[in-house]
Specification:
Blueprint: H1 2-24, E1 30-31, H2 32-35, E2 36-38, E3 44-53, H3 66-78, H4 85-89, E4 96-105, E5 114-121, E6 132-139, E7 145-152, E8 158-160, E9 167-169, E10 174-183, E11 196-201, H5 206-220, E12 225-227, E13 232-236, H6 241-252, E14 255-256, E15 264-268, E16 273-276, E17 281-282, E18 285-289, E19 292-297, E20 308-313, E21 318-321, H7 327-336, H8 341-353, E22 357-358, E23 360-363
Parallel strand pairs: 15-23
Antiparallel strand pairs: 1-14, 2-11, 3-4, 3-6, 4-5, 5-10, 6-7, 7-10, 8-9, 11-13, 12-13, 15-16, 17-22, 18-19, 19-20, 20-21
Helix pairs in contact: 1-7
Family: Belongs to the FlgI family.
Keywords: Bacterial flagellum, Cell projection, Cilium, Flagellum, Signal
Signal peptide: 1-29
């Protein structure tokens, strides 16, 4: 136990030493295109229902998926092959699968441009590997057809070791078709209309919004940009479309120093991951959870030294951390003593409820 705890502690100390320079340095400048997006310039989601054929006996069991046989009957009737209801019910096609097709059509897509599509089985097909998607209409939220998809489905996740004794099989009921759809209808965009273009920050922050306005006005001239609120910025743009594209291209690459955001701790109890930013701190507190006890004493720190953090178990294991009253030290000490993700989550929640954790706790 002592050897494993010491090994974990050394690993945690190495990680902390690597991250310490990142925490201590000032906020670096980012481009406006990394902080904000132009209002109205976005992707559009498409969806469709289709049939994949050519499977190697890994398709739907049509007796249990009646919608597959119904789709096949409708397709055949459009091609001049008419089946009676009795004949359609007797179809036993193991090389066919009913699928849903999803795609994201980028902004400014024009008819004739290709886009990638994702094909996912909606029946009980075992695998879509080797199948071919038949022509399928992709519709938007308004019910209009915006693209047509067709092509060979590419399914990954099947592999074998060099010796042939180990086979790895991942999820085979979904695949992709690169450039598998062709845009048939363009989505109107209002970028070239009106005298203003609006930038929207990825997160609301009044300080960052003001820094963006200052950077644009400094580079493009006073009065070019003004903040509407903590998230949206109005930019006066040229009326000519060509000049507007060049103008926005220059704005996108301007450097801005974003304001440091809220102190936040992200916890994923399924994986045990804990991520925090540099503003997370702790107040004096004491937490007892099962066999673990956490004491953060920041009442009387020595001059030039940080606070003392003690984490111990009932069996006598004890670890002292003298690196300031911050959450990174508590997490590192708990991991060194073998605390599981549920223990860590319970302790963080208790600290937050007691007001000792100076950060927003978000569980994903």
């Amino acid at each position: 136990m002592k050897t494993n705890s010491g090994k974990v502690y050394r690993q945690a100390a190495i990680v902390a030493a690597c991250l310490l320079p990142l925490w201590s340095q000032t906020v670096l400048a980012e481009r406006i295109k990394d902080l904000a997006s132009i209002q109205g310039v976005r992707n559009n989601q498409l969806i469709g229902y289709g049939i994949v054929v050519g499977l190697d006996n890994t398709g739907d069991q049509t007796t249990q998926t009646p919608f597959t046989t119904q789709a096949i009957g409708n397709m055949l009737s459009q091609m001049g092959v008419n089946l009676t209801q009795e004949q359609g019910q007797k179809l036993q096609l193991k090389n066919v699968a009913a699928v849903m097709i999803t795609a994201s059509m980028p902004a400014f897509s024009k008819p004739g441009q290709p886009i990638d599509v994702t094909v996912s089985s909606m029946g009980n097909a075992k695998s879509l590997r080797g199948g071919t998607l038949l022509m399928t209409q992709l519709k938007g939220a308004d019910g209009q057809v915006y693209a047509i998809a067709q092509g060979n489905v590419l399914v990954g996740g099947v592999g074998a070791s060099s010796g042939g004794s180990k086979v790895t099989v991942n999820h085979l009921s979904a695949g992709r078709i690169p450039s598998g759809a062709t845009v048939e209808r363009a989505v109107p965009s209002g970028l070239g209309q009106g005298g203003f273009v609006y930038y929207e920050l990825s997160s609301t922050d009044f300080g960052t919004a003001q820094n963006v306005v200052d950077a644009i006005n400094k580079s493009m001239g006073p009065g070019t940009a003004q903040a509407v609120d903590g998230r949206r910025i109005a930019v006066r743009a040229p009326e000519d479309v060509d000049a507007r594209v060049s103008f926005l291209g220059r704005i996108d690459n301007l450097d801005v120093k974003p304001v440091v955001g809220l102190a936040k701790v992200i916890v994923n109890p399924r994986t045990g991951s804990v991520v925090m930013n540099q503003k997370v701190t702790l107040e004096t507190c004491a937490v007892a959870h099962g066999s673990l006890s956490v004491v953060v004493d920041a009442a009387q720190p020595q001059l030039g030294q940080g606070a003392d953090i003690q984490v111990k178990q009932d069996n006598g294991s004890l670890m002292n951390v003298k690196a300031g009253a911050n959450l990174a030290d508590v997490v590192k000490a708990l991991n060194a003593l073998g605390a599981n993700p549920l223990d860590l989550l319970a302790i963080l929640q208790a600290m937050k409820a007691a007001g000792a954790l100076r950060a927003d706790l978000e569980i994903i």
